[in-house]
C-alpha cells in the first residue's frame, strides 16, 4: 500500500470509528484548501476551516461509513472513487457516490476536493431511497481495508 493510501486509511479510520476531528486534521497541512463540496460551496481554508466543517458535519452524521472502491495516483495526487454514507440525527440515511482528489505535500494533504451530487444527499436526509442506477454504484465491493459493507438502514428490512 502506498504512503498516500496509508494516510487516507488513517483518516477514514479516525473519522468512521470515533469521528476524531483532531486526528483527521493531523493529516492536513496548516494551509489546507478543502473543497468539501467542490461544485456547491466555497472551500474551507486551513486547520480552522477544516475543523469548522468537521464539527458541523459531526453534528449531523451518525455511524459514518466511508467506503473506497478505486484509487489511483499521479505525482503528488491520490484519486479515489467511493461512497460517503451515514445516518442523520433526524433519522435519514445518506449514501452518496463521490470522487475525491487529495494533493499531498510530503505525508500530509494540502488540497482536498470532493465531487458529488448534493441532491442525492438532500434526498437521503429526507428519508428517500436513491434511484436504482445510483444504488448499483453504492453496492460495489470496496478495496480491502477501505470501508465495510453498506450500513443497513434502520427500520428497513434488507
Structural class: alpha+beta
**N to C succession of SSEs:** HHEEHEEEEHH
Tell me the fraction of residues in β-strands, as a range. 35-45%
Q: How would you sum up the global shape? A: globular
- The gyration radius over C-alpha positions equals 15 Å
Strand order of the largest sheet: 2-1-6-5-4-3
Give the total of beta strands: 6
Sheet with the most strands, sense and barrel status: 6 strands, mixed
Helix content: 25-40%
Low-confidence stretches: 153-158
Describe the protein in words.
With 158 residues, this protein is α+β, with helices and mostly antiparallel strands. It is globular, with a radius of gyration of 15 Å. The chain is built from five helices and six strands; from the N terminus they run ααββαββββαα. A hairpin with a 2-residue loop joins strand 5 and strand 6 (108-116). Helix content is 32%, strand content 37%. The protein has a six-stranded mixed β-sheet. The relative contact order is 0.18. It has helices at 3-18, 21-25, 46-60, 118-125, 132-138; strands at residues 28-35, 44-45, 61-74, 77-88, 93-105, 108-116.
Relevant terms:
158 residues, alpha+beta, six-stranded mixed beta sheet, 5 helices, 32% helix, disordered C terminus
What order do the helices and strands come in, and which of them pair?
Layout: H1 3-18, H2 21-25, E1 28-35, E2 44-45, H3 46-60, E3 61-74, E4 77-88, E5 93-105, E6 108-116, H4 118-125, H5 132-138
Can you describe this structure in just a few lines?
With 158 residues, the chain is of the alpha+beta class. The chain contains five helices and six strands; from the N terminus they run H-H-E-E-H-E-E-E-E-H-H. It has a six-stranded mixed β-sheet.
Amino acid at each position: 500500500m502506498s504512503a498516500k493510501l496509508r494516510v487516507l486509511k488513517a483518516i477514514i479510520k479516525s473519522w468512521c470509528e470515533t469521528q476524531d476531528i483532531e486526528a483527521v486534521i493531523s493529516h492536513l497541512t496548516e494551509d489546507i484548501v478543502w473543497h468539501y463540496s467542490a461544485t456547491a460551496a466555497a472551500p474551507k481554508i486551513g486547520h480552522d476551516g477544516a475543523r469548522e466543517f468537521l464539527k458541523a458535519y459531526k453534528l449531523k452524521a451518525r455511524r459514518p461509513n466511508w467506503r473506497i472502491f478505486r484509487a489511483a495516483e499521479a505525482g503528488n495526487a491520490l484519486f479515489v472513487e467511493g461512497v460517503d454514507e451515514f445516518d442523520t440525527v433526524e433519522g435519514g440515511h445518506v449514501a452518496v457516490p463521490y470522487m475525491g482528489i487529495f494533493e499531498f505535500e510530503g505525508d500530509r494533504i494540502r488540497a482536498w476536493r470532493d465531487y458529488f451530487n448534493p441532491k442525492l444527499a438532500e434526498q437521503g436526509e429526507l428519508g428517500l431511497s436513491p434511484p436504482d442506477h445510483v444504488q448499483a454504484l453504492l453496492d460495489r465491493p470496496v478495496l480491502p481495508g477501505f470501508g465495510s459493507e453498506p450500513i443497513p438502514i434502520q427500520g428497513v428490512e434488507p
